[in-house]
Structures are given as structure tokens and as C-alpha cells.
Request: fold
Amino acid sequence: MPTKLTINCTTGERAEVEMTAEEVAQQEADASAFAEEQAARQAQETAAAEAKASAQAKLKALGLTDAEIEALTK
Amino acid sequence: MATFDLIQTVTVGAGGAASIEFTSIPQTYTDLQVVASVRSSDGGGSLRIQPNGLTTNLSSRRLEGSGSSATSVTDASIVFVYAVTLSQYTASVFSNITIYIPNYAGSTFKSISVDGVMENNATESYQNLVSGLWSNTSAITSLTLAKSTGNFVHHSSASLYGIKNT
Reply:
């Protein structure tokens, strides 16, 4: 079982205690939610990078130089 | 003139800890500030801020910059900080996180602002700015910093300061 570190700010007493089942469940829910968020973000960044590469390829096909494309996309 | 008083400092022991909890916080200051130096035992870099042990009535907006990209995330039910240095990042590097909570002992909703960085000297670093809200009128008497996965490693530390006008 994971542990939590507690410190009583009034007495200074410190304790290392096992987390409750409820706290462990909360941690697992957090981990799951955060993993989903990270996956969604990664997908968004990948899609944006692919769209940018596609747009640059189309500009090149129209005859723009790399310097011109870079100037447009900066 | 405002004064900063160190209320307590806690340092994680050799076994690590999944969360750090300040309890029985004195109600004699106007604001609270936590200064944390933390590192993760795994590849998860987020921590949750939990006033009075509660996970309800929390919301936040998080701005993240990695040096190569920037994102904004809205969390409708949690205050996350994505700035706990990951285990695969440069050895012995700990993140810096500052949490500021004004009017923590009052009877209005509590704002929570966070500024944190985690660094990987070889390739990247992340900056996190979080504006959080705890929509609860209770005074804050305890504050928990909980890892979302894994543990805070040995030597991670957190200090709680009280701020008041003198």
C-alpha cells in the first residue's frame, strides 16, 4: 500500500502512514485521467504537425522555395 | 510590511511517499505559500492539490510550455500541476514548484496559483502555470500534495510558509 507523509503544523509531529483504499482509488483515477489527457494532447500535436507538413508540401508543389515557405509559416 | 514565516518543512524519506500532507495549519496568517522541491519515482509528472483532504469543488486552468510547444488545459474537477521531474529525466534534478493561496482562512472561495518547472537538461524543460479555484467557503486547515502515480522520491521536500502583514 502506498504511504503518505503527514506533518502536524501545530505540534510538528510527523507520521508516515498507509494511504486508505479511498485515497489509493483517487490516485488511480488521477492516473487514468491524466493518461487520457496526455494521449489526447499527443494526438492533437501529431495532427497539427501532419497538417503543417501537408501544407508545406502543397506550397512546394505550387513552386514556392523552401525559404519562401519558411517565411510564410514562421 | 509582509512577513514570511516558515510553518513546517517536510522531507521525504528513503521509502518515498505518494503524498505529502500538512495538517492543523494555523489560522493566524493571511496567505499560505508552499515551496516544493520534488522528483517522481516513475514516468508520471503530475501532482494534485487537495485542500482539507477533499477532491470536490476544484477546477483549474493550466498553461504548459515545453520550449517547443505550448498548451492550455482546463480541468473541471481537479487542480493538477504537471511539473514533478520524471524519473527518466536527468539524475538528481528536482523540480521547483511554488503554490500560493491567499485568504486561506477566510469564508470566500479560495484561489490557488501555481508556478512550477521540471527540467531535463539533455533535451527539454516544462513550465507550468496553474490558476485553480476551490469553490468552498471553509477555511483551509490542511493541504495535500498527492502524486497521481508513483511516489515522491527520497529527498523531495515541501515547506509551508505563512504570510501576514505586520
